[in-house]
Structures are given as structure tokens and as C-alpha cells.
Amino acid sequence: MAAPKKGRGPAGGQSRPGRALALILIAMVALTGGMFWSGHTTPRLGIDLAGGTSITLKAKAEPGQESAVNETNMNTAVGIIERRVNGLGVSEAEVQTQGAENIVVNIPRGTNEKQAREQVGTTAQLYFRPVLAVTSGAPAATPSATPSGKPSGSPKPSASSGATVGEKSATPTATASTQGRALTEALKAPSPTPTASSSAKPKATGTPQATPKPDPATAALQQKFTTLNCLDPKQRAAAGQGVKPTDPTVACGTSGKDASGKDVWEKYLLGPAEVNGKDVDNAKAGLDQRTGQWIVDMEFTDAGSKKFQSITSKLSQQTEPQNQFAIVLDGEVVSAPRVQTTLSASAQISGSFNQQSAQDLGNILSYGALPLAFQTQSVDTVTAALGGDQLQAGLIAGAIGLGLVIIYLVVYYRGLSLIAIMSLAVSALLTYVLMALLGPAIGFALNLPAVCGAIVAIGITADSFIVYFERIRDELREGRTLRPAVERAWPRARRTIMVSDFVSFLAAAVLFIVTVGKVQGFAFTLGLTTLLDIVVVFLFTKPVMTLLARTKFFGNGHKWSGLDPKRLGAKPPLRRTRRAHAPVDAKEA
Predict the structure, then answer these.
(1) Which residues, 6+ apart, have CB-to-CB distance to 199 below 8 Å?
(2) What is the distance between the alpha carbons of residues 541 and 534, in angstroms, rounded to a whole number?
(3) Is the entire prediction scored with pTM above 0.90?
(4) Comparing C-alpha atoms, which of 123, 96, 105, 71 is closest to residue 374?
């Protein structure tokens, strides 16, 4: 078998460039069709180009915890708010501190902007508290804990727990805590009453029995519970403010809607928190297959499972309403399920949820509670006028740069510039289509730094063409014809292009990881266009060059092809010659 001739590339590289061109053509058609099918034919724009909302939040510490407003907690809050907003699919949101007490959140206009505005300042302090008493939300002179734990004529929410049922505790407990017992007894009997042993006829000792007096804290809490008006939004918001998790408190919660569609409010007297939001490992919205209602499923950490098992073991021994635990989010009762048996690993929040509210609650609980409470200082609408002017200036600069690159290619490379221009057009088309598709897919939004990254990519892509063209010219200067020169130049050019693009992509990846906000847009665009440069050079530029090398215009070295051997100073063609031998004498022969 004859050995393959040196200096020739693989057969597929010369005779079958159509395969690579067909592959990239199919990819372009599929991506473009997907763009039109999705309905997103333009890239999503960032806040500097499309406008949006800028929210300023001011941290406020609870009474006695002024030192909580520190750099560590502020940075933690920034991270949580950013994850919440991005968890809704709102990318390119900017979350940063301003001074020692303020956080500024910039949300681009677009999908889920309203949800993001509602969630950025939500503290999401979640507690599981035992219910000591519950009654109608309106203020009353004498509160009462009805046996059913609900006011007359008002529907109770179908709050339930979807956790795995465990064994009941062997030792029943009277109440969730000693303090909870005292408060419950005080609410059941607002005025001082004798003990159970004194309810019988008193002994004739001549000394009247003294009735126990409630302590001042209990009396104050009872008074607060009595006068609380859950129909007043201000009182609802202030009901549990400044209360430590270890102290009992009062709170409001809805129990459904009345015939007119208005919320029916109830007020709760709650014991100390037994489980908090940090014990929740994961939370997500789902549809209850039995009732068809939206719910939020929660999974606890190992420590949270033990706490949850302990509290449900205690509550399962009680009668209503003290067999309920209230799920309190930011001071408001979102659900108060009854406990019938011991529960452990997971729980379910149900109530008056729709799909959106269930997903919002699951998103908030999944990313954790803010370490501080925040007050909204300002909500401003950002217009895109300034960004539009800057974008116009950037596009003009990009057009000028692209025009100068094309002029240089035409003057220096002549006919080869056609290949470079077609390759730039393919790269631009793929970049645009991918940006349009990545908007709804991963929340990518095009901002001014991202536009700068795309302009820089023009130079990176043009550099790859120049490397390949110069390698071909070097082969022609050595005296080879065009077709062998195209194949011999490719391995060396390919190696140089790969190393150059790898360095660019590595720089973009590092920049994307270590930065935040708009700079990430620049890094992402730079990395994306660098990858597309490799795709275009391998699947378009090289195959097209192979096909054009077979034409007379390029193959014969026309003076306008950019590959004229005379203009390049090529050596004479390499030819094999036989050695000349001196004539030999007949005698010597």
C-alpha cells in the first residue's frame, strides 16, 4: 500500500467542506426559527437601555438591637435580595449598598418587575408559634377562645400539614410552654377567678381566700390582644413589632373571604416560637391533588425536623385551638393548621393562595430571611432616555470600527475580504439570535457594557481571519499552489486561533465570576462571542476557503484575489528534479 503523500490535508477537509457548511446552516435556521417561534425577536434590555424601577431601602434595627445594622448584615441582605430578584427571572438587576444603612435596587422594566418590587424589601421572618387563643379580628371588650377557634359565621382556612405522620409522644404535655399556659388561662378568665380547688364551698376558717393576680406582662399582652383591631392595616402591621421570638405575641391572619369578597380577619394570641425560617431547607409552590388548591411545600433541615417533631408532639395532645400552630411570616399569620399527630421532616402551608402568591412565598422562603428589617425610602421610575443616547453613541462607534475593519480587509486582502465579511455577518447573526433567545431562557438582559463586549468581539473575530489568511500566504510564498496551501496552513492557524480564543474566554470567565451587576454583562457577551468565533472559523470560514480555492479566480492567483504569487513574492514552484550523472567510460563500465 502506498504511503500518503506529505503536504496534503485530510480528505474530508478538501473534498467535503459542504458537511460543515450544512451543519452551521442547519444551526442558523433552527435558532432563527426558534427565535420567531418563541415570540422574542429582540434581546431584552437592561435598566440603562429600557428603563425600570429604582428602589431605596433603609435598614432599621429592632429596639435594643441597634448594633445589628452593620456591614456583615448589610452584605448578607444584598445577597439575599439579589437571589430573590434573579429567582424570579429578572436578570441584570443591580443590588448594592449606599452608605451604612441604605440598599439601592435597580430592576429593569420587563417580566416580573412588579413581583420583584414587592419582594425586595420583604423581611421574610418565618416562625412557627403555638396558638393560645383566637377570635374575631375586630376589637372586643371581652375576648374569648371559642372551642372551634373561629368566629361565628366566618370560614376557617383549610390549613393543613402534609408531613409524614409519626408516632405520638408517650408523655402528653399540657401546653406549649408554662408562659403560654398562664396567658391562656388569663384569656379564658379576664377577671380574677378562684382556682379549681376553691370552686367548692369555702371552708369556714374565717379567712377569705386570696385570688392570684396576673403579672404585669401577662396583663399588658391580654390588653393588647383585647384591643387589637385586625381590620386596621396600621394595627395589623404594628401588632408583632419589636417582639423577640422567645416571647409570646399577638398577630392577625385571614380566614378566607366573605360573601362580598373581602378578607375575613382573625386575631391570634401566640406562644414563643418553636421553629424559625432558618430551619427550612427548601420551599416550593405546588398544587394539592386532593383539593385543587395551591400550597407551599416545605422541607426542614435535620435540626428543624427535630424541633418540628417536638412541637407537633406537644400540640397533638391538646384541644382546639391549642392544638394549632401558627405559621407567622413577617408578623402575619399565613396559616394555622391543626395538629392531629406527630409530624417531622416536612410541612405544607395552605390557605387563600393562588399560583402567584404561592410561588412568591416559596421563592422568599427558599432564599432565606433578611437579617434586618427594611423600610422603603423611595421608589423611582428610571427612564431610558440617557441610556438611549449612550446606546446610540455606542452603536455609532461600533459602526465606525466595523467600517474601518472592512476597509482594511478590502485594501489589504482584496478578494479574501469577501470571506471575512461573510464570516462577520454569520457571527453577528448568531450573536443576535442567541441574545434574543437567552433573554427568556436565563434572564439575560442587554446593557451598555454588553454592547461594548459585542463591539470588542469584532476585533477578536477579525483577528482569527487574519491569522488564517497570513498562514495561507506564507505557504504561497514557499512556492506551493493554493489548494495545498489552504490545507497546510490550517493546522498551524487553528492552533493559534484556539490559544488566542482560550485566553479571551478565560479572561471573560474570571471577570464574570469576580464582578457583579453591569460588568457581568460585558463579561458574558465577551465569552459568548469568543465561543461563536471558534464555531464560525471552524464551520464556515475554513470550508468556504476550501471551496473558493477550487475556483479559477482564487486558484490561479488573480491580482484582485489577494493571493497573487507575484505580489506576495512567492518562490518558484517546488518541483522534484533528478541528479545529473557524469558520462562513464566503457572500460569503467
Answers:
(1) none
(2) 10
(3) no
(4) 123
